[in-house]
Amino acid sequence: MRHELKIDDRTLSYLDFGGTGRPLLALHGGLSEAASYAGLATALGDEWRIIAPDQRGHGDSDRTPEYTREGYVGDAVALLEHLDLGTPVPVLGFSLGGTNAYHLAAARPDLVSALINVDCPVEVVPKDGPDFWAFLHHLPYTAPTREELITALGPMGPTYAPALRPEGSGWRLPFHPQDTLATLALAHGDRWDVWLASDCPALLIHGLRSQALSKEQADAMVSRRPGTSYAALDTEHFVPFQDPEGFAKAVHAFLATL
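and the corresponding structure tokens:
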């Protein structure tokens, strides 16, 4: 079920997949939204109640002038405090959501009982050569009709067709390309201190062919942080989408140990 939370003058939209199980906060990746966890919610069944926000600027949540890490984490804190679940909860995050998840665990250990990082590095350096994200500079955000927007998105059209939303007199993406670029501009850097600042049980789910997280860095993340386990899947970076069954099994197995 979809709900809304007002933070200052902004709306943060979130999905509560319901059930009587223990709550699990799930943070989606960039270019995505909370609904991406519908499959995981089905796979976990009645054991876990997934609560997933559309992070700022994504899905049905309002856009904001800034996309700092503090802003993303502050939204997650506001949501957990609003829900008042009475106990710390496991937090899962993929890619962008993974970064936000381990920052949340470091900043508010009183709210986080366990951490699941899905293919998110702690050390990101600019790479030489073509910019992988260059396509965002030319990606359309809106179009007069749904069909025109699907066509304008080119190869991405079929992927995003189910997520397109009415906007005024036209249709829009579930994210704004410029907001994604603003987030990416602050993504580079060394965050080992943040990764190592929390001590709750953790799982790193790694795509063995990931373009974002090398095997060397993944191994170091596990060995350097006490209480961290590791699950590898034969995917690229987009682990939850390329092997949803393996992803759900890894999550379920870790949650069963808590």
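(Above: one complete record from the training split.) The mean pLDDT is 95.
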